[in-house]
């Protein structure tokens, strides 16, 4: 419900808001520039009597002297029969420059506050402020739900894609946007006279009408200084009874131009001050830091409006109809999805396709649409979690509906989707599990928890499901639009040919999509691929469309894609890559693999790998925080032939980035395999893991099997087993 | 049968002066291309000393800004016994028609225009033109936002 209240007005008004925020950012930027460049004068030492005197001796036909909020002195006068405004030096009264807003600047102002039209436009602008306020408030509550508490809003977090941009920007810009929308709404209500503007009753004060004295001799002016001036309006020369009107920060004063007497002085009302503060805070004129803040936040508001629109549109397309969806009353399997952002739907559709292809009748529906009865023998539930364990939007009535179930109870399988960085990882899936068990439903397989949409974890769970259903399942997740990018080989390093393990380290330059645009710009627009060590790159050889996945050693920030390829005998893709020469180009797609990454909270890292599996591990060593203990265990064949990254690793050890470098080689005398090192170092590793260390394994299946065995043995005395470590994210693997 | 005609014959001379007492005057105010937002204008009739006799037209919708038309506002207190309309853009002109009493024509009265532009100046008595037949076809120049004022009758 909340999401709809956030998304619907947002969708319709995204463009309106984009323009309001965009023009607001420009205006705030102008205000900041104006404040930053305004000259500094000791204003308290300049009396208004002197100021008015010096200015009127330099300039004829002065009508009004204004102190702008940024501290400039602006004089409006009639020059050659035309009203004109100039900026003057308050000490000399000499005009420095003509002050007229450029047509562009006036257009931006009018666009911002009235859509270039009259009252209708003003109403639209006021409406935009009200919508902005609504979006800020609903957005704040959603942020709190997503992050799991107000204090968590300040912590760093990781996410993917446009939604991440929206959330990151949202939590930064919400403060400024709230301020702008509240003050904007206030000004709009005053404009439509729904709130008092606090202006004093119009009073006309008549002066004595006697001959005017020099301005410098008038007491009523001399007792005030430039420091708290707003404006001085000089009398109409044609009207002898017209007094001088002075507005300061606190009061309006009328002074007789003949006697210098204060004829009347009225202090402003509270409502006037409220209006004034709202105006100051909204325009940030003369408030440099606020102006900078508002400029940044409004620019953020522009991006928020556009990313919000994209998220909304994407969700609308993503929730399109499912092909060949069985009716609930005729289904073998109920496939229920509880999703907040719509991304879980991708998994549900893949599962629906695979189960349908395997001959089952599957009914796919939101969790809220759980029917009261069905002949289905299984219920599969894919449940995302909204922040701190709350039900996602399409599942908030599920648990009530479960209570209304009639007839025999099908077996239940639950997959929770979440993010391990949030406090209650897959908290909602746990609630669903509890509710199902309490209602007498049996679990066919243990509930699976999937961290950050890991495709690998989902496919593994699919294997369990296939076993449980006794079905040959072909689960395939297809990305809507794979981001194909070209990469050019710039360097290759050959290893291992002498020991029958031909391996190459390939370094590619990322070829920008647009030759003429600056790479940095393309990066910030998201047109350049983003990856970190441990992510995967999918490469298809020219002769075969099926991609092979390679672990990446480098981070995209370096501009280099670095992988390590072992030429498998008869391997098509590895043969293709092994044959690449500098200058040649490949096409590839990055697949984020957030599950295989060092946990920043781990006390130390234990990296274990063999052969080409070194690639992501080297990347982790490079990224390690200085002083954070990192151990690397790696096995090869011969130190003289296939010691990959040897120089780099030895340097890392000598400069302390790598705490311990343990290598072992199988083709030399007295050699062995990496699991032998694990057994050998068991006591040391035990201590590290007991203290909260994280294990990351990368390499072939056989090696991984051997390492697991050795680790189990090493950990047995602690009473820890590998499944427990894996569940807690303390053991992660990238095994091929 | 003859009585109504008699009545008409008797009353007609009494009515005629009433009809003939006022005549339509067209006033065209042209603004300079001063390059700013639209101007608020007050067009009104005064005597030679500037004393308000009749408000003809106030251009600019927001009553709370009318005080900036200070020459007119000071005397009228914002009361408008004439027509109103939208503010007038820079470089544009505004033509208004008003019934003006014959007694005010060729009797030393004049038409004044006060102008004001947001954030810029207030120009009381920006333009003035004498209400006399001799003024027809002889526009008078303004001193502020008003380029000229012309009358036809």
Could you explain the architecture of this structure?
The complex is a heterodimer of chains A (about 725) and B (about 150). In chain A, the strands form four sheets. Chain A has an eight-stranded antiparallel sheet with strand order 4-3-2-1-5-6-7-8. Chain A has a six-stranded antiparallel sheet with strand order 17-16-19-14-15-18. The longest helix of chain A has about 35 residues, at about 1-35. By secondary structure, chain A is an alpha/beta fold. Chain A is built from 20 helices and 24 strands. Chain B is built from two helices and nine strands; from the N terminus they run αβββαββββββ. The mean pLDDT of chain B is about 85. The interface of A and B includes residues 81, 101, 119, 202 and 236 of A.
* Mean pLDDT across every amino acid position of chain A: 86
Largest sheet of chain B: 5 strands, mixed
Number of helices of chain B: 2
User: What is the domain total for the residues of chain A?
Assistant: 5
Content-based structural category of chain B: alpha+beta
How much helix is in the residues of chain B? 10-25%
Q: List the helices and strands of chain B in order.
A: HEEEHEEEEEE
Question: Gap between N and C termini of chain A, in Å?
Answer: 43 Å
Low-confidence stretches of chain B: none
Number of strands of chain B: 9
List the SSEs and their pairings:
The complex is a heterodimer of chains A (736) and B (153).
Chain A: H1 2-37, H2 48-58, E1 62-67, E2 73-79, E3 82-88, E4 95-98, H3 103-114, H4 119-147, H5 161-191, H6 219-222, E5 229-233, E6 244-248, E7 251-255, E8 262-267, H7 270-283, H8 288-318, E9 333-338, H9 344-357, E10 362-366, E11 378-384, H10 398-403, E12 411-418, H11 427-438, E13 448-451, H12 455-469, E14 484-495, E15 503-511, H13 519-524, E16 536-539, E17 548-551, E18 560-566, H14 572-578, E19 585-591, E20 605-610, H15 614-623, E21 630-636, H16 646-654, E22 660-665, H17 674-680, H18 682-690, E23 694-699, H19 701-715, H20 722-727, E24 731-735
Parallel strand pairs in A: 9-10, 9-11, 11-12, 12-13, 20-21, 20-23, 21-22, 23-24
Antiparallel strand pairs in A: 1-2, 1-5, 2-3, 3-4, 5-6, 6-7, 7-8, 14-15, 14-19, 15-18, 16-17, 16-19
Helix pairs in contact in A: 1-3, 1-4, 1-8, 3-4, 4-5, 5-7, 5-8, 17-19, 18-19
Chain B: H1 3-20, E1 22-31, E2 39-46, E3 52-59, H2 70-76, E4 83-85, E5 93-101, E6 110-117, E7 122-130, E8 140-141, E9 146-152
Parallel strand pairs in B: 3-4
Antiparallel strand pairs in B: 1-5, 1-9, 2-3, 2-6, 6-7, 8-9
